[in-house]
Amino acid sequence: MKTEAQAVIIGGGVYGCSVAYHLTALGWRDVVLVEKGRLTGGATFHAAGLVGQLRGTPSLTRMIMYSVDLYRRLAAETGQDPDWRETGSLRLAATPDRLVELRRHVATARTYGLEMHLLSPREAVDLFPVMSDRDLLGAAYVPTDGSVDPTGVTLALARGARARGAEICEGVEVREILTKRGRVRGVVTSHGTIRAEVVVNTAGIWGRELAARVGVVLPIYPIEHQYLLTGPIDGLRRGLPVVRDPDLLIYFREEARGLCLGGYERHPLPWGVDGIPPDFHHRLLPPNWEQFEPLARNGARRIPALETAGVRELVNGPDGITADGELILGEAPQLRGFFVACGTPGIASAGGVGRLLAQWIVEGDPGLDVWRMDIRRFQAHYGDPAYARGRALEAYSKNYVLRYPFEEWESGRGLKRSAVYPRLAGLGAVFGEKAGWERPNWFAVNLPDGPPTWAPRGWARHNWSPAIGVEHRAVREAAGLCDFTSFAKFEVVGPGAVGLLQWLCDNDVDRPPGTVVYTQMLNARGGIECDLTVTRVAADRFFVVTGSAFGVHDLAWITRHLPEDGSVAVRDVTGEWACVGLWGPRAREILQQVTEADVSHGAFPYMTARWVRVGGAEVWAQRVTYVGELGWELYVRPVQALGVWDALWEAGRAWGLRPVGYRAVDSLRLEKGYRYWSVDITPEYTPYESGQGFCVKLDKGAFQGREALVAQKAEGVRRRLCCLVVAEPQAVALGNEPVWAGDRVVGRVTSGGYGYTVGESLAYAYLPVALARVGTALAVEIDGVRVAAVVAREPRYDPGHTRVRA
Ligand SMILES: Cc1cc2nc3c(=O)[nH]c(=O)nc-3n(C[C@H](O)[C@H](O)[C@H](O)COP(=O)(O)OP(=O)(O)OC[C@H]3O[C@@H](n4cnc5c(N)ncnc54)[C@H](O)[C@@H]3O)c2cc1C
Predict the structure, then answer these.
(1) What is the mean pLDDT of the chain?
(2) What percent of the chain has pLDDT over 90?
(3) End-to-end CA gap in the chain
(4) Which of 149, 531, 554, 666 does the annotation list as catalytic?
(5) How far apart are CA 6 and CA 164, in angstroms?
(6) Which of 113, 487, 570, 780 has the most CB atoms at less than 10 Å from its CB?
């Protein structure tokens, strides 16, 4: 075994072998994969092998589409046949809402160029004849889905990697991960030490404990997952499609002329709670018939022949489920050079995961927007097993349950409450959760008397409330009070702070103390990695504020770029500051009542910040807005936050002040054209494409991404984020809907919603420049129906920006 390598991969399951395959494909030769037992001996050998391509995010779908491409050619390329069977797949609908969901899926699939059709019950049964059409309303069919032999595909990837020079060592256990000054340096194994600047943790359910030893939060938990293998059933033959019947919580496919039938029960069983037994390798768990019985019964409802089919085996294996059910990829924020790839569906996604991670390692950039899979989405509290396991169990139990828009987690609630929580609760806040924080979506106190005068139709009506419109109007017409305590906040301090931030930001932050700057931080391609406000507090001190969920991510981005000379220190101060937001045309009168500071426009201009005293508390007030109105973010120590809230609340009563939740804020920002990072703007888009060119200061000197922007400016952009006004205001897009030009899909909605002031249904989408002209007639497919839409001038509300500068 080598003693030095460019990369050491821990774990010889499907992910580890795929990472080795793709690292060597990118030209790395010094790659060592160490596996404590035999290849595939973890979760991989007992997987059912289903490969379904359409997923909840564009990136994961694209990644699995690549897996399919790869699995098709692996046999010819490596000489090891992974038994890829391109049988197609069916997803059944047995309820009207499920049928709407399928229609939405079919529409989304179009935006990826993934072939998917809606079939009648008859057509579905024709494709899988032993199936009953009981309760069936329709099915979605993907002809290029299929299944693969999990062991075969892993061995094929390993063989491909070996052929290009990778060393694959079985029977070698990693016992320690070496680190020095925040960087990984190698591993100590049962067979000696290997020095390496890159270590990849693909240890599946063992990965969490390995990561924890070096301070990395990797919330993946084993949960028992079972499938039944039956004896032969008449009518089953090779080549039949894989079927998912989510209303019955089951999936099935043909296996040796019998059935392989598994599912996701509502009450899953965690495994290995007290630790994974040391000798657990290439082993299964004892079959648990009692646990499987509801799924077996459901199976017999769909396939009556199951009642009499002989049983070959009930396979029970621990599946690694992450704390939100999505994959976990990327470089650990706590440890440079320590990469991870874990989570299910590993067999389906391994091709794409291996390619993406290899690119990330070799080029320093995954090349795709991976936010929903990014290890940097987990805050420290995900290191708590009780919390994170609860989430993993909930994610597993809901895998096949119909999910409506804006649904919230049920487990792990109440973890972080802001200091003003009692007031929010007292006003009837309907709470959602972000990054562990309880945050009001809307307030019962704002529910109008009588029936609502307006409501969205279709899918968008779920988890909607007429209180949202009332709160929206309060902000536009009087004033709204928001609890924004969950904002992630950092302090960047030191003689090198301004230099670092000038390098990271596209906007010019070298401004006088007391200046608030809205800016992006870019990657070398000019893609938007962070979107935040940077406020200069003093010559060598900055206060940075970003979205609640993006704290770990953005902090890691800044930390990664810290100069080595120690001239800058960065610190997360999220918990040290509460934030009360006050906006609306009456915000000034309200604030003026409770402070002696002069808050007139002349004394306290837009995009400036200063200390003011409010109700006896020292408050750092920033005149900035995400809702498009005059107002302030008021940062105060948590112990004094309640006092500030109460003072503003009392002062505001006479002015029509209302408490405002996040759903109204979203509607307000949409009609004001404010972008939301992770949907409207991502590392895949530049500020010129996203309509944020106004932030880019090319003449301020060098900054990361500048060269790419200069080149793009010279060439001109090819696509642009556009605001579409949908012709029917009650037809509301929620994101991922296709945008049509005639009979061509030309874009996908990034975010959408109803603007209560403009009275329009708005949808944002990147469009080719030829279609980005104002007035271009298009259509947005909402709940499977194409609705006319037109590219509109934006922002829809207050294009002259007079309100924010009032
Ligand atoms: C019953 C069942 C059915 C499934 N069906 C499907 C399906 O149809 N489709 C699908 O896509 N997914 C399916 N999955 C999920 C799939 O099996 C996993 O997502 C996938 O196998 C995970 O691969 P991995 O490489 O991350 O982990 P593993 O295969 O578990 O590999 C991790 C490896 O790391 C090794 N290791 C751990 N610690 C160390 C150490 N310290 N030193 C060296 N080596 C170490 C282990 O020995 C192990 O071999 C199923 C899972 C189960 C349980």
Answers:
(1) 97
(2) 99
(3) 70
(4) 531
(5) 14
(6) 780
Distances in Å between the alpha carbon of 731 and those of 8, 471, 620, 666, 762? 51, 21, 41, 17, 9
Active site (annotated) includes residue 225: yes
Per residue in 343-392, pLDDT (tens digit) is: 999 999 999 999 999 999 999 999 899 999 999 999 999 999 999 999 99
Q: List, for residues 759-773, the tens digit of each pLDDT value.
A: 999 999 999 999 999
Lining ligand 1 with CB less than 6 A are: 10-16, 34-37, 41-44, 46-50, 173-174, 202-204, 206, 210, 225, 227, 281, 315, 317, 319, 342, 344-348
Return the ∠ at Cα 210 (arms to 207 and 213), rounded to 5°.
Answer: 145
Structure tokens at 369: 């927007």
**Could you tell me if 470 and 400 are in contact, meaning their C-beta atoms sit under 8 angstroms apart?**
no
What whole-number distance in Å separates Cα of residue 250 and Cα of residue 264? 7
What are residue 45's phi and psi, to 5 degrees? -65, -25
Give the ligand 1 atom nearest the CA of 41: 49
Residues whose CB is less than 8 angstroms from the CB of residue 544 and which lie 6 or more positions away in sequence, other chains included: 489, 490, 491, 492, 532, 533, 534, 535, 554, 558
Q: How far apart are CA 495 and CA 344, in angstroms?
A: 45
Instruction: Find the length of the chain.
Output: 806
Q: What CA–CA distance (Å, rounded) separates 40 from 62? A: 25
Going by C-alpha positions, the residue among 118, 125, 114, 75 that lies closest to residue 98 is 118
Best residue for ligand 1 mutational test, from 44, 87, 260, 265 (most atoms within 8 Å of Cβ): 44
* CA 42 / ligand 1 centre spacing (Å): 5
pTM equals 0.97
Distance 784 CA to ligand 1 centre (A): 37
Centroid of ligand 1 to alpha carbon of 280 (angstroms): 13
Expressed in angstroms and rounded, the spacing between residue 182 Cα and the centre of ligand 1 is 28
The two tokens of residue 617 are 């508390």
Beta-carbon contacts of residue 638 (< 8 Å; ≥ 6 apart): 418, 419, 485, 575, 576, 577, 578
**Distinct helix (H) and strand (E) counts, the chain:** 18, 37
pLDDT in tens, 57-105: 889 999 999 999 999 999 999 999 999 999 999 999 999 999 999 999 9
Q: Quick one: which atom of ligand 1 is closest to the CA of 44?
A: 21
Ligand 1 nearest-atom number relative to CA 203: 34
